[in-house]
Amino acid sequence: MSLPLPSELILALQAKIDAACDPTVNHHIPGVVSIVVDSHGAEKFAYASGTRGVGSGIPMDVDSIFWIASCTKLITSIACLQLVEEGLIDLDDVSSLEALLPELKDVQVLEKEGDSGAFRLVPKERRISLRMLLSHTAGFSYSFFHEALRDFSRPVGFDEFSGHISDIILQPLVHQPGDKWEYGVSYDWAGMLVERLRKQSLGEYFKERIFAPLGITDMSFFPSGSMKDRLTTEEVKECFNSGGGGLFAKPGDFCKILSTLLNNGLSPQTGHRILEDKSINELFTNQIPNSQISAVKA
Which stretches make up the Beta-lactamase-related domain (predicted)? Predict the structure, then answer.
């Protein structure tokens, strides 16, 4: 049985959110939607405050549509684990991964040469696995996080938000595969894997295998007409389906995914299963080698 939150707590949460969105306060947040669900799919709290964006006069509401950016990665990981369950790929089978993503064979590692500051590309010491892609240990980064990668890409530069696949597949690694955790474009590669295995766009796969079974209607790489009317950010007209950060969604729909994962892969609302227990355990298991944990914490 799912018990409601105490009314005092609800009022306190609402007050905190309103205070964060107060336009009379410096460094306020333009708008917020906060939703809390449990493993039974019960909505414990839902509240919106502020406006849809900087300079916007349109009030934020719980049905507003957001660019959910890197929250897309969670859904891409679900898709990849579904393919693992079907026996189409293995988390540690580097040969199968390279057969589907042959571009990974030739990707090299970016290094900086001593005092000269010159860049050079050196061969990989080991091959990349799907597990590495999903745990951010493949060696990829983001140019806006990694100074050397940013400088190497000049004068044109890599723009991971351009919507062009070339800004992803032309990037070198910044570490040897498996050597270090680094947040980067590896989930875009994982998304391309799903597309090539299933011979359909990532958006089509998400809709068919994740969104429809969970009753999700307001989540897409390309917002529908009704979603566009509720956007809190500018729509991207054309882009490849970025498994690392391309989705738009209503917060309540994203919470349907969270409650399903909390319920061991079974939707508490529709009764559809999207992942088996083994995959859920894998999803919630630390994948970062012990030798790298201290570096991540630092």
Answer: 25-273
C-alpha dist (Å) from residue 110 to 97, 121, 210: 22, 5, 36
Q: Do 41 and 108 reside in the same domain of the chain? A: no
- Let me know if 129 is a catalytic residue: no
pLDDT tens for each residue of 221-250: 987 777 777 776 655 555 678 999 999 999
73, 124, 180, 207: which is the annotated catalytic residue?
73
Q: What is the Rg, in whole angstroms, of the alpha carbon atoms belonging to the chain?
A: 21
Per the structure, how many domains does the chain have? 2
CATH number, domain of 180, equals 3.40.710.10
Is 278 known to be catalytic?
no
Q: Which of 34, 39, 96, 183 is catalytic?
A: 183
Residues of the chain falling short of pLDDT 70: 1, 232-239, 293-298
| Domain ranges, residue 131 | 72-245+262-298
> Residue 15's closest CA among 45, 57, 59?
45
Model pLDDT, residue 233: 63
* 145 and 89 assigned to the same domain: yes
pTM, two decimals, is 0.91
Do 30 and 125 sit in the same domain of this protein? no
Q: Which of 220, 215, 205 is nearest to 272 (CA)?
A: 215
The reply to whether 73 belongs to the active site is: yes
